[in-house]
Amino acid sequence: MKLFIASDLHGSVTATQAMLARFEASNADHLILLGDLLNHGPRNAIPDGYNPVETAEALNAYSKQIIAVRGNCDSEVDQALLQFPITASYAHVLLPQMRLFLTHGHIYHPQQLPLLQCNDALVFGHSHIPVAEYRDDILLFNPGSTTIPRSDIRSSYGLITATECQVRALDNDELLLSCSIRHTI
């Protein structure tokens, strides 16, 4: 199974369309969205291509493949535009080799972990800064932001397979970070 991970779209239809094209090309089984989908948020500048309605329409075309969690900029009004649920603050995805705890990152994050077991993964967004590393036997994975990258990092997305997690550049698909998945016997 291959999972495509994106976060912090912030209503940019331009970035969302680029991300969806990468999703199509990846042949991933599911599109995981880690929140902050439609609203730019009060601390962010309005991004290029800001159009929440068109962003929602673009995402709705993939609603059967989407697993999403709520970000701190998402609201019940946003849910009214989307054909897939976004109101849960976290979700679990069980893979044969590990459990993924999906969250936006404003409640649970590397400094405030949920209850996880050895070799589980915290998959989060919010910081707009990519991460792909193990810390104390927990995989920390953040795909960065498709729309408003921070810390001199380019717009990015993530992929998780049975053997590896990757952060890739949205513009040219360049590998930015990777981490091998640990397997327990």
Structure description:
The protein has 185 residues and is an alpha/beta fold. The protein has 3 helices and 11 strands. It has a 6-stranded mixed sheet, covered by helices on one side. Strand 4 and strand 5 form a beta hairpin. Helix 1 (13-26) packs parallel to helix 2. The longest helix is centred in the N-terminal third of the chain and has 14 residues, at 13-26. It is globular. The model has no long low-confidence stretch (mean pLDDT 95).
Main attributes of the structure:
16% helix; 6-stranded mixed sheet; 185 residues; single chain; alpha/beta; 5-stranded mixed sheet
Task: Give a topology summary.
Layout: E1 3-6, H1 13-26, E2 30-33, H2 52-60, E3 66-68, H3 76-81, E4 90-94, E5 99-103, E6 121-123, E7 131-135, E8 138-142, E9 156-160, E10 164-169, E11 175-180
Helix pairs in contact: 1-2
